[in-house]
Amino acid sequence: MKTNTMFLSKIPQIFSYDELLTIIKQEVEVLPSIQFIMNQKDNDNNIAILKFKKKEEALRVEKKIKSTKIFNRKLNVQDYKPSKKSFTKNNSQNVKNTKTHLQRDANTKDKNFLDHERSKKKKKFVSGVKITNKIFDHAKITETADLVKEKSSKAPIKPKHQLFCNNKKKK
């Protein structure tokens, strides 16, 4: 019987030997002989050659490998190459400008966020108790006179103008 070889030339350095074995074990009963060959032209490209006894097994494994999420994800990352246009003199300046622009945005966002946090601390109220100091470690808590009256006499508080009117009548 002739051995059927399958070239995974489109998978440069994606799967390790162990990863390939685990994928193949799911599909094939008898494990094939696996060889990793380095390309002479590109040192980055490893090609896996799998030798199967049955052609069906080779096709099944090839389908399985190409359908894995890892294969697609890693292949997309490796295939991406920036266009040559982006390295011209004109565009390199544009890239610099966008970087500074992005940095400026980031700085203003941080500044705005800090200002927002500071304003929160200044205007913080906890259940009718005012926190007047900016720093919470040394917070001075002041209760208003209205709250003290409310605690002592559990009756509803009258508006201030009515209180003054009543005082005048009693005198």
Automatic annotation (TrEMBL):
<dbReference type="InterPro" id="IPR012677">
    <property type="entry name" value="Nucleotide-bd_a/b_plait_sf"/>
</dbReference>
<feature type="compositionally biased region" description="Basic residues">
    <location>
        <begin position="157"/>
        <end position="171"/>
    </location>
</feature>
<dbReference type="InterPro" id="IPR000504">
    <property type="entry name" value="RRM_dom"/>
</dbReference>
<feature type="region of interest" description="Disordered">
    <location>
        <begin position="149"/>
        <end position="171"/>
    </location>
</feature>
<protein>
    <recommendedName>
        <fullName>RRM domain-containing protein</fullName>
    </recommendedName>
</protein>
<dbReference type="GO" id="GO:0003723">
    <property type="term" value="F:RNA binding"/>
</dbReference>
<feature type="domain" description="RRM">
    <location>
        <begin position="4"/>
        <end position="82"/>
    </location>
</feature>
<keyword id="KW-0694">RNA-binding</keyword>
<dbReference type="InterPro" id="IPR035979">
    <property type="entry name" value="RBD_domain_sf"/>
</dbReference>
